[in-house]
Amino acid sequence: MNQFQAYFNTGIHHVLNIYAFHHILFIAVLCAIYLLRDWKKLLVLATGFTVGHLIALGIAILNLFSISNNLVNFLIPILILITAFFNILKPRPSSGNSIQANYVFALFYGLIHALGYSNYLRGKFGSGTAIIEPMLGFNLGVEVGQLAVVGILILLSSILIGLLGVNRKEWALVLSSLVMGMAIMMVLDARYW
């Protein structure tokens, strides 16, 4: 297996790792207000996260900026909590071309999340031009993993709303409230900060 493939697989595992479920929670709360017909918006959200992730990993791995892991571990559930709260306030996506807060949250979450993961990757990637292939592989793996989670969540939403007749607003409120509750537990759990 070449280096690109190894980091690509690491990126996918990073998202789908059940022991690091905060990533899945954030994707779930981002997807809570969208339906299958909103697939373009969801693609932009997932890519926004990945862009933030890539920028922050590059900055951190090149030692241009660092942040305490304790602060990152505190900010991650806070961002999940804030995103869930915004969904509860506005359980449907905006119409038209306006930029919704979730796009900003996705980019910022990607930035914060990558800063926390960068200490681990800094040792694996090394420095200099040798980091380009691993970073590209890792971030493409993250994107594929996120799109898999998005696909599963949108399929579930489509079944619940389209086939079983669950109210769209109620689904968004229930899913966002569940994620909010889990994020509160993460904030209160000393392991996360």
From TrEMBL:
- State a single Pfam family of this protein: HupE_UreJ_2
Keywords from the UniProt entry: Membrane, Transmembrane, Transmembrane helix
Membrane-crossing segments per the record:
16-36, 43-65, 71-89, 101-120, 144-164, 171-188
Q: Which protein is depicted?
A: HupE/UreJ family protein
Source species, domain of life: Bacteria
InterPro entries from the UniProt entry: Put_HupE_UreJ
The reply to whether NAD figures as a keyword in the UniProt entry is no
Q: Which organism is it from?
A: Echinicola jeungdonensis
